[in-house]
Amino acid sequence: MKRAFILIVVIFSAIAICISCKQYHHGDINITISESGNMFSMTSHFNEEKTNDVLAFMDRRLGNANHFSFVNSKLDATLTLEDQTNMYVKTKQGYVEIKMDKSKNSYENYKRVKNMCEGIKEVIK
Fold first, then answer.
1. Residue 22 has pLDDT above 60, yes or no
2. DSSP, res 105
3. What element of type H or E holds 99?
4. Distance CA 3, CA 35 (A)
5. Mean pLDDT over the full length of the chain
6. What span, in angstroms and rounded, lies between the C-alpha atoms of 107 and 56?
7. Cα–Cα dist 81/61, whole Å
C-alpha cells in the first residue's frame, strides 16, 4: 500500500513538472540571426499562439508576390520561389528556421529575406 502511494505521488509529480515545463516554454521568445561567409540563417522559438501571425507576416513579405503561402503549412524543405529566392525553411508551431546560401541568391532576394527575418522579431514580441 505504501509503495503504491509513493508510486502515485511520483507519477503525479512527474506529470506536474512536464505540464509546467510545457507552459513555461510557451512564454519563451528566442530569435537568432547569424551570417558567416555565404550563409545567412535565422532560428526563432516563440509562443505557439503567434505562429499564424509569423507565417502571415512571411506571406506578406515573401509569399504573396511568389504565389506561395506559409500559413497553415508545416515545412521542412528547400524552396525556390518564383523570384528565384532559394532557401531552406522549417516551420512548426512556435518555431521558424531559415537558412540561405547568399551565393545562390541575388542581393535583392537576400536583403528581402534578411529584412523579413528582422521583422519577425517585432511579430513575436
1. no
2. S
3. strand 95-101
4. 56
5. 87
6. 24
7. 12
Q: Three-class SS of residue 32?
A: strand
Which amino acid is residue 42, in one-letter code? Answer: M
Q: Which residues contact 19 (CB under 8 A, 6 or more apart)?
A: none
Q: Are 42 and 117 in contact (CB under 8 A)?
A: yes
Share of the chain above pLDDT 90, in %: 70
Query: Judging by beta carbons within 10 Å of its beta carbon (0-12, 13-18, 19+), is residue 100 exposed, middle or buried?
Result: buried
Please choose, from the candidates 26, 87, 92, the residue with its C-alpha nearest in 3D space to the C-alpha of residue 55. Answer: 92
Q: How far apart are CA 95 and CA 60, in angstroms?
A: 18
Amino acid at 73: S
3-state secondary structure 104-122: HCCHHHHHHHHHHHHHHHH
Contact (CB, 8 A) for 121 and 31: yes
Helices (H) and strands (E) in the chain, counts: 3, 5
Asked if residue 124 lies in contact with residue 32, where contact means CB atoms within 8 angstroms, the answer is no
